[in-house]
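so the lab meeting is tmrw and i was supposed to have these ready like two days ago... anyway. pasting both below. for each one the top line is the aa sequence and the line under it is the structure tokens. i havent really looked at them closely yet so no promises
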Amino acid sequence: MADPIGDDLVASLARPGGNVTGTTFLGPELVAKRLQLLQDVVPGLARVAALVHPHAYGERTMANVVKDIEDAARTLGMQLQLAPADSPDDIATAFSAMAKEHAGAFIVMPSPMLFGEHRRIVELAASNRPLGMYQAREFVDAGGLMSYGANLDDLFRRSATYVDKILKGAKPADLPVERPTKFELVINLKAAREVGLTINRDILLVADEVIE
């Protein structure tokens, strides 16, 4: 989950209190950081679009996600365009809207649906030419420009420990929701070269992985 507290699934991360526990990838908290990294990589970026699935999570979580990206764009002096996609069929339309508004880059907001469509999103980005900042490395492995976030494979593996504990008698209410401890910045240099983008060496030095 992106925000299990915001979606009223748990009372707190430390003591969930109900019959739900597990891991969170901290989706909303990373929105501003992703936008800052995108601005660092794309000099002079003035207009950015946010590909958002409006009903990815609960109403309160989604309101917070949108507010966070709007606040971050305002702080960084960028114009923000929200490009909604409520289903996979809407993604191409969202990219058309980005092109119409001349967005120089876009950021994919947290969403299981958008994550599931990562290959298609990368293909549409390649066709429409905007530069993309993604929520997970799977987008970059598929040819996207860059991502910043928790390693989802690691979180999935960590979930196995919860299954083990519950099968041995532990109560979900007593098992703290686990937050990721490591976030990775992954950059695809091939994707950058294809759009004529030169990435600053200082950024490459702090990246956790650079795909040649």
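ok protien two:
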Amino acid sequence: MSSRPSTPSVPRGRHAPPLEVRLEVQRTRLLEAAARVFARAGYADASAEAISREAGMSKATFYEHFANKEECILALFDAARDVVLQAMADAAGAAGSDPQARLRAGVRAFLETLASHPDEAQTVLVEIIGAGPRASERRDQILSGFAEVLDRENEVAARKGAIARFASPDDAFAVVGAIGELASRQVRLGQPADVRELEPVIERLLLGVLSQSGK
């Protein structure tokens, strides 16, 4: 996930970096271009040719990295997941040990990342829905992964007596699913105008679920 401008090309000739570096730069540029194309045209109307052209590369180069546009959107989804999880982990770590401060920091980092990468947000929250059964399966896996992260964070805090424990792992998944739908609605409809305005809504959602835990 990266905001514009695109990743610069690498030098050629005897000053060129190792092959693995060149391939990584190519892949990053293709994923950035794919996010723009998917967001602008929609998954159904996007093509390998359009993505290659957006990246300033040949279609042959696209196919060196991805078998088709489905593989490309799955790779983009995975990359976006890694960026968001890292941003949330870094923010929570910087917030210290207070559970509510960590919670707020993680939510804020999630929303800031979406706001900073609108094309990627459009792709992974909206366009992924129409990308076929493999994409739907990957989406379910990633939502489950986010729920597991949230559940572990809650377990650690609850063990210290600092916060209530979720009543079940499904509570964490329910929260993650609701957050995903709130963010998707914002991207699709512009409600609210800025995705960061969802921060207090998400905090109330989390604290509301926690307030019912253990009853």
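from a quick look at the 2nd one: The two ends are 41 Å apart (CA to CA). Residues 47 and 93 are 40 Å apart (CA to CA). will dig more after coffe
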